[in-house]
Amino acid sequence: MKKASLFFCVLAAIAFVSGTSPVPAQAKKVSLNYANFPPAPTFPCVQMERWKTEIEKRTDGAVQINTFPGGTLLGAKEMMDGVINGQADIGCICMAYQPGRFTVTNATSLPLNIPDAKTGSLVLLDLYNKYQPEAFDKVKVLTMFVTAPANIMSKAPVAELSDLKGLDLRASGGAAQILKAWGANQVGMPMSDTPEALQKGVVKGLFSSLEVMKDLKFAEICKYITITDTVIYPFAVIMNKGSWDKLPDDVKQVMDGMIQEQSAWTGEYMDRHVSDSIAWSKKEHQVEVITLSAEKKAEWNARLAPITESWIKTAQEKGLPGDRIVKDIKTLIEKHAAK
Ligand code: 3IO
Predict the structure, then answer these.
(1) Which residue positions does the secretion signal occupy (predicted)?
(2) For residue 28, what pLDDT is reported?
């Protein structure tokens, strides 16, 4: 090597080490695609945007999250397998849409009186951590949360069990079992298909948490709410295992550190937003809220008693400790509701 070229080599090396090289020494930015099934204004997408903002901030911009609401990347029923297969790095699933697949975590949608979304979200997360159900073996869980308790939203008033008889109402999973026990004609479909079904009259109402009266404008069609406060719908945010394994350790730490916080945040957001939605529906769309007398509520609840017993039996047939899972949920409700 000539003296002159050696000189330039040394200069280049100094430039590289001192950071003036045109090639940045910093690791490449990680970019992740996050799929969600319902429209952007709904709570699963609101929590997704909150998580994106916090992750991008807490990783100092080393991670970029690209969000896909409204089923533009993956739809409700293809979400779990789509994430496992890597069609999206991250996805949000409603476990009620595949009840047989998520037996343990769907036990939170038995009629066990989870009082609100914040309590329920922390109960679900604890239950998941305790049992580590194999349904989630192929993914990394980033958080879990639940809706507020489900109530009836309908075109015609529902004040008696006889009003429900044969009525076409939409629900999924644990909530669907409850509608059946009350004698309604339960129609199963994801929330993302419900606006069209209501519009076309395929269903005459739905059974879910009440924030959708505002977020999906169901108050324009469903003029009646019947307060039953029975079961929640459980959700999980899951990540492709390969995408997770490739993340730098400090990014993994940030995501792990947000699992519980995101669960509580989403529960609190949901509880607040349900109150908002009821007030808005009454004021803007003259929606009537029907409450059941204690006597009637007892009559409605009595119909639900066999559901938990039957779930325990089915779980035990699958080799799961059904009895213990139900007891654990009851204990966890007391633990988290006390706070
Ligand atoms: C739900 C699902 C997507 C968007 C808003 C929502 N509010 C309550 C749910 C629960 C659910 O999955 C359902 O199907 O009722």
Answers:
(1) 1-27
(2) 72
Q: Is 44 in the pocket of ligand 1 (CB under 6 A)?
A: yes
State which of 47, 106, 192, 209 you would mutate to test the pocket of ligand 1, scoring each by most atoms of that ligand within 8 A of its C-beta: 209
- CATH of the structural domain 30-146+232-272, one choice from 3.40.50.720, 3.40.50.2300, 3.40.190.170, 3.40.1190.10: 3.40.190.170
Alpha-carbon distances of 151 from 141, 158, 211, 292, rounded to whole Å: 28, 11, 10, 12
- 110 Cα distance to chain centroid: 16
Q: Which residue ranges make up each domain of the chain?
A: 30-146+232-272, 151-231+285-318
**Residues 139 and 241 sit within 8 Å (Cβ to Cβ):** yes
Q: Which atom of ligand 1 is nearest to the CA of 212?
A: 7
Instruction: Using pLDDT thresholds of 50, 70 and 90, give the confidence band for residue 22.
Output: very low
Q: Which two tokens stand for residue 248?
A: 């730098």
**Could you tell me the pTM of the whole model?**
0.92
Cβ-based neighbour number of residue 306 at 10 Å: 11
Ligand 1 atom nearest to CA at 175: 15
Find all residues with CB under 8 Å of 108, minimum gap 6, and list them. Answer: 114, 120, 123, 124, 127, 146, 174, 232, 234, 329
| Model pLDDT, residue 27 | 59
DSSP class per residue in 164-216? HTT-EEE--HHHHHHHHHTT-EEE---GGGHHHHHHHTS-SEEEE-TTHHHHT
